[in-house]
Every structure is written in structure tokens, then in C-alpha cells.
Write a structure and sequence with these properties.
Layout (H helix, E strand, L loop, with lengths): L2 H53 L13 E5 L2 E6 L8 E8 L4 E6 L2 E5 L3 E9 L5 E2 L4 H5 L3 E9 L16 E8 L2 H4 L1
Length: 185
């Protein structure tokens, strides 16, 4: 066999492997970017609904509702508001289903489920001095003035793993502190 021909085959093989490796890296980066955008969009959708609901706790056409927060736990809240501004109190619940990594929002018993791999969802309730309120009874819940919500949304599968990197989940963290105006009145 000719030495020049053998060298050409070796060089062509190395170039082909380099091109394939580059193509796989670009594909992996594109997949990670697409997944990151999807996770961020899902987080934005949930946060928009949460912001509207939580900001309107206790809202009533005439005056804020008395005893507006009916239940308050780390991954669950139930409260009264007039979300559709029709003069009638609506009951809203938000619950994190840890076993299925999803959020469930109930409006007057009608459920909307956000099945987007929400691995962490935590609500912390604070009084006017920013001390933590447990919400065990109605008197404690009536002291709530601030609600801090944090959430982590994660990709359903690990992404990556080519070359020297290990595959990893794509995550987006969201955190916001709310001060519903009607709780201060």
C-alpha cells in the first residue's frame, strides 16, 4: 500500500471524526438552549398566574374580605378573592403535588394542573415585622402581610453528556415576595 494514500485516509478519518464531534456538540448545545427556553417560558406562565392570584388575595368590590386566607402551608395556600370582579367571593387554592412534580391551581373547585416538572415549590408567610408566620390557625393567618414564593422548574431528562461533561438537568429558579395590598387594609 502506498504511504501517501494511507496518510490521506488517516487525515480524512481524523477530519471526519472532528466534523462529527463538532456536529454533535452543536446539536447538544442547541438542545440545551431549546430546553432552557421551554423551561423559562413555563416558569413565566406559572409566575404570571401566581402574581395575579396572590396580589389579589382578599380583594372584594366593596371592601377586602375578612379572614381571607383559609389555609397556609409550605406548599399549599387557599384564599378568598373576587378574581373575576363579579361581586362574589372566589376560592383559590395553589398546591404543589410533590409526588408528581406539578402545581395544581383550583378556582372554585375547577382544577388547572401545571405538569411541568416543578421539583420545588415553597411558600413562606411573613407578618408585618417580616417574622415567619406558620398559619396554623386563623389568627396567625390574619397576621400574614407578605408571601415569599420560590419555585424550581427542571427539564424532564438530563441533557448533554458528550465529551468530558456529564449530563445534567436544565433548571430555572424563580422567587418573588408578594405584599398583597388588601392584607394591609
Amino acid at each position: 500500500m502506498n504511504l501517501g494514500l494511507t496518510t490521506s485516509f488517516i487525515i480524512a478519518g481524523v477530519l471526519l471524526l472532528s466534523i462529527l464531534s463538532m456536529n454533535m456538540n452543536i446539536s447538544q448545545s442547541s438542545t440545551a438552549l431549546t430546553m432552557r427556553q421551554m423551561i423559562q417560558q413555563r416558569t413565566a406562565t406559572i409566575s404570571e398566574v401566581l402574581e395575579k392570584d396572590i396580589s389579589n388575595i382578599a380583594y372584594g368590590q366593596e371592601k377586602p374580605y375578612d379572614d381571607p386566607i383559609l389555609d397556609a402551608r409550605e406548599g399549599f395556600i387557599e384564599f378568598k378573592t373576587d378574581i373575576d370582579d363579579d361581586g362574589n367571593p372566589d376560592n383559590i387554592q395553589w398546591e404543589h403535588d410533590e409526588s408528581n412534580n406539578q402545581l395544581i391551581r383550583k378556582l372554585n373547585g375547577d382544577a388547572t394542573t401545571f405538569k411541568w416538572n416543578i421539583t420545588d415549590f415553597k411558600m413562606t408567610y411573613l407578618d408585618s415585622d417580616r417574622d415567619t408566620v406558620l398559619g396554623n390557625d386563623q389568627n396567625e393567618r390574619n397576621d400574614i402581610r407578605f408571601i415569599d414564593i420560590s419555585m424550581t422548574v427542571r427539564s424532564p431528562e438530563k441533557i448533554g453528556g458528550l465529551g468530558s461533561s456529564d449530563p445534567e438537568y436544565i433548571t430555572t429558579n424563580w422567587n418573588r415576595e408578594f405584599r398583597p395590598i388588601n392584607l394591609s387594609l
